[in-house]
Design brief:
Layout (H helix, E strand, L loop, with lengths): L8 E5 L4 H12 L3 E6 L2 H14 L5 E5 L5 H8 L11 E4 L14 H29 L2 E6 L12 H17 L9 E6 L7 H14 L3 H11 L8 H11 L11 E2 L11
Parallel strand pairs: 1-2, 1-4, 2-3, 4-5, 5-6, 6-7
Helix pairs in contact: 1-2, 1-8, 4-5, 6-7
Length: about 260
C-alpha cells in the first residue's frame, strides 16, 4: 500500500533507538524526510546513518538536544536544512519517568514528569499544528503508554503525566483542526522489547526479590500473543496513522499490546 506521504517532512522525537527509531524507520521507507531527535549525539548520529542507508532517497537531519527544554525544541524546529516549523508529521516521544513508589517522589519529580510527558508534546503541537491546518494536511502521533488505560503501580509518574496529555488530545483532536486535514492520535504501546521494558523488569525484580529473567518470563506469559512487540511493527502502525488513508481517524488511543488489555473498551 502506498501511504501517500513521500516527500513530506516529519519530526520524530526519541528516535535514536526503540519505538521512536521504529517510527522513523517506517516513515523513511515511505519516502518521508526526517528530522530526528534524541539526547545522546553519538547514538542519534548512528541512527541517522542507519536510516540514510535504509532510505537513501530521503533527507535525514539529526538534532541532538533535550526536547523537554525550550532551547532543545528551538534547536529541533530550526534545524538547518529542515522545514522549520512547517512539519507535515509530528511524532512526539520522550523517555518515561523512573518507576518507584509515589511516597518517594517530591514535587520536582512530578514537575519533571509532567514537563517531559505532557507539556513537551503540547509545546511541539502548538508550534506546528496551525501550519499543518493552513496547508490542509497534518498528522500528529503521540507515543504514550498502555498504562494510560491500564495503570501500572510502579509507574505512577508516567500514569499521571501521560493521562493528562491524553485528556488534552481528546479535546484538541475534535476542535477546528479536524475539518482542516489534521489528525491527532495517541499510540499506547504495551510490552515492546525495548530498553524501557528492561528497566521496568529490573525495578520489578528489585521490588519482588525475583530474578530479572523470572520477571521477564512471567510478564511474557501474560501476553496472549506470548511474545513482546517489536519496534518495527510499532513503526508500521505509526506510519499508517500518518498516511493519507488515516484521515478519518482522529482523537483515538490505539493500543498495540498483543491482546494484554482485557477490557472491551
Amino acid at each position: 500500500m502506498d501511504l501517500g506521504i513521500a516527500g513530506k517532512w516529519a519530526l520524530v522525537c526519541g528516535a535514536s533507538k526503540g519505538l521512536g527509531y521504529g517510527c522513523a524507520s517506517a516513515l523513511a521507507q515511505e519516502g518521508v524526510n526526517l528530522v530526528i531527535n534524541a539526547r545522546n549525539p553519538e547514538a542519534l548520529q548512528a541512527a541517522a546513518q542507519r536510516l540514510q542507508s535504509l532510505a537513501p532517497q530521503v533527507k535525514v537531519l539529526a538534532v541532538a538536544a533535550d526536547i523537554t527544554t525550550g532551547q532543545g525544541r528551538d534547536a529541533v524546529l530550526s534545524a538547518p536544512g529542515g522545514p522549520g516549523v512547517d512539519f507535515d508529521i509530528l511524532v512526539t516521544n520522550a523517555g518515561g519517568p523512573p518507576p518507584g513508589d509515589f511516597r518517594d517522589w517530591d514535587r520536582d519529580a512530578w514537575i519533571k514528569a509532567v514537563d517531559a510527558n505532557m507539556l513537551t508534546p503540547i509545546e511541539l503541537i502548538k508550534a506546528t499544528v496551525d501550519g499543518m491546518a493552513a496547508r490542509g494536511f497534518g498528522r500528529i502521533v503521540n507515543i504514550t503508554s498502555s498504562a494510560v488505560k491500564a495503570p501500572i503501580d510502579i509507574l505512577g509518574l508516567s500514569n499521571g503525566a501521560r493521562s493528562g496529555l491524553t485528556g488534552f488530545v481528546a479535546g484538541l483532536a475534535r476542535s477546528g483542526i479536524a475539518a482542516r486535514g489534521v489528525t491527532v492520535n495517541n499510540l499506547l504501546p504495551g510490552k515492546f522489547d525495548t530498553d524501557r521494558l528492561r528497566t521496568t523488569f529490573t525495578a520489578a525484580a528489585g521490588k519482588t526479590g525475583k530474578s530479572v529473567d523470572d520477571v521477564r518470563g512471567a510478564q511474557q506469559a501474560l501476553v496472549p500473543a506470548r511474545r513482546f512487540g517489536t519496534p518495527e511493527e510499532f513503526g508500521a502502525i505509526c506510519a499508517f496513522l500518518c498516511s493519507v488513508h488515516a484521515g478519518y481517524m482522529t482523537g483515538q488511543n490505539i493500543l498495540p499490546d498483543g491482546g494484554l488489555y482485557a477490557g472491551t473498551f
